[in-house]
Amino acid sequence: MANQIEPIKPIPIEPRHPVPPAPIHPLAALTTIVLDNIFGWIEIVDPFALLLTSFTVGGIGFVTTLFVQRYLAKDEWGESVAKGLVMGVLAGVPFQVTGTAVGAVLLGWAGANKWIKLPSRQAEQKLPPGEIVEAESKDTEE
Length: 142
Known about the structure:
With 142 residues, the chain is mainly α. The chain has a domain at 26-112. It is 55% helix and 0% strand. It has 5 helices and no strands. Helix 1 packs antiparallel against helix 3, helix 1 packs parallel to helix 4 and helix 1 runs antiparallel to helix 5 (96-115). The protein is elongated and about 90 Å long. The two termini are 16 Å apart.
């Protein structure tokens, strides 16, 4: 039986992130900011349409965040619905500051997680126990 030595397989080195990933996909946060600012002028011009505008913006924010979280962020349906409700309510509040502030913080959080990286740790190249093979010496065969 011939002993074969397998080469050492490289260990993948992953970059470390000092900032944890954001709970909301960046596109959902951006959508909340855009919805909050687009419909903000209607709230100022016609205060009587405030209720209708708030529900419309909240519904659009809910549906948009729901589908972004489900299909882009790959969340489960329950998580997507919960995040959609929160972002829909924040976009539907009749103040432009709420959705814009929260959306900007979440968007900045996602950007910080993406671009701020620590240097990766260099792992020691050790052989796994399964790859260590003991060779039989020729002296024992005599």
